[in-house]
Amino acid sequence: MASLFKDLSKLSAYRDRRFPGNQEEFEHALLTSTTVYVGNMSFYTTEEQVYELFSRAGEIKKIIMGLDKNTKTPCGFCFVLYYSREDTEDACKYISGTILDDRPIRVDFDWGFQEGRQWGRGRSGGQVRDEYRTDYDPDILLMVYDNYLQICPCVNYMFDFL
Q: Which of 11-19's residues contact partners 24+ apart within 8 Å by CB, and which partners?
């Protein structure tokens, strides 16, 4: 039978290779953390929009927007820190899959924010996931176009169709 909400009995299949402990410690951190990772966001989604949506699950301690490490611009992810584990579980259960800025966002338990995790880890400066995309994503196309113009502004006339 189909379910409307995310099954919380399954922890994230994603394993952060930069987590400073072993697998058992990682799983314990996921089970006790009050932080969620939010992915597949538009590059144009604001912190205020994230706050408005995620505050429905509970009181928010802090929001950290993910940034391209080269351009320091948003690159489609963020971390939301709650005060309670219950609010964290509600965010994962009820908000994952919600449409925000015309995109279905992905909400997952995270082991906890540490300084430095706000930067994209991809070779281009953004998310690693974006480097493996095979589908068309207009936000990424515009970001690549803007970055290219910074390097070579003389080609602007070639892209008047955008």
A: 11/109, 12/108, 12/109, 14/108, 16/111, 18/117, 19/111
